[in-house]
Structure formats: structure tokens, C-alpha cells
Amino acid sequence: VQLVESGGGLVQPGGSLRLSCAASGFTFSSAVMSWYRQAPGKERELVASIAPTGDNPNYADSVAGRFTISRDNAKNTVYLQMNSLSPEDTAVYYCKALAGVWFTPYWGQGTQVTVFS
């Protein structure tokens, strides 16, 4: 199983970034996919999750209305569109899959997002 995040970087407040997570080694179209983030000195927190069909995405209150999670099952990729970024969004962002019959958790290596003025 491999999850490879990309798209992180430096951005000014109010800016946008789009994260991607390319998956392999499991049946992506059956997996629940999520994005988490971890800021320095803080615990890892759930940002957004999406069902295998792409229906009913869920968001943390802190990002609702600004972030959008989506998936392309044909490309085995999940995305996180992040708009109206603020310094509080600075963190390492991780992709997580719950895959297989037992919904085994798998994590990517993370991608850094830094919002600075």
C-alpha cells in the first residue's frame, strides 16, 4: 500500500492550495479516504473525509466552507482543495485510507502547508 501526498507549499493568507493523494496497492474505490493535519505541538486532527462513492463528505468545523474534499476513483486519487487559507491552517497534512474488508488504516508521509504573511 502506498499513499503519496503532493501539492503542499508556502502560501499567503487568503490564498489557495490543492493537495493530492495518489493511492496504490489496495482497492481505492472501496476505501474511505480522509485528510488529517498536525500542527507543531498539537495532536493530529481530522480535516475531512469522503465515502467510497464520494457522497456526504465530512469536514471539521474549522475548515467547513473553505476546504473541499473530492476523489477520482478512476485515478485512485483524493484531493483537498483549500481556499481562504489562514496561518492557523499551517500544518503537515496527511492522507489516510481505511481499506479492505477490515478497513485497515494506512497513512501517507505527509505534505507541509505553511501559510505566512
Q: What do you see in this structure?
A:
The model has no long low-confidence stretch (mean pLDDT 97). Strands 2, 4, 5, 6, 9, 10 and 11 form a 7-stranded mixed beta sheet that branches. The chain has a 4-stranded antiparallel beta sheet with strand order 1-3-8-7, with no helix packed on it. Strand 9 and strand 10 (104-107) form a beta hairpin. It is globular. The protein has 117 residues and is mainly β. It has no helices and 11 strands.
Brief overview:
The protein is an all-beta fold and 117 residues long.
Percentage of β-strand residues? over 45%
Largest sheet: 7 strands, mixed
What pattern of helices and strands is seen along the backbone? EEEEEEEEEEE
Low-confidence stretches: none
Oligomer: single chain
The structure class reads mainly beta
Count of helical regions: 0
If you compute it from the alpha carbons, what radius of gyration comes out, rounded to the nearest whole angstrom?
13 Å
Helical amount: under 10%
The geometry reads as globular
Write the layout of secondary structure elements.
Layout: E1 2-6, E2 9-11, E3 17-24, E4 32-38, E5 45-50, E6 58-59, E7 67-72, E8 77-82, E9 91-99, E10 104-107, E11 111-115
Parallel strand pairs: 2-11
Antiparallel strand pairs: 1-3, 3-8, 4-5, 4-9, 5-6, 7-8, 9-10, 9-11
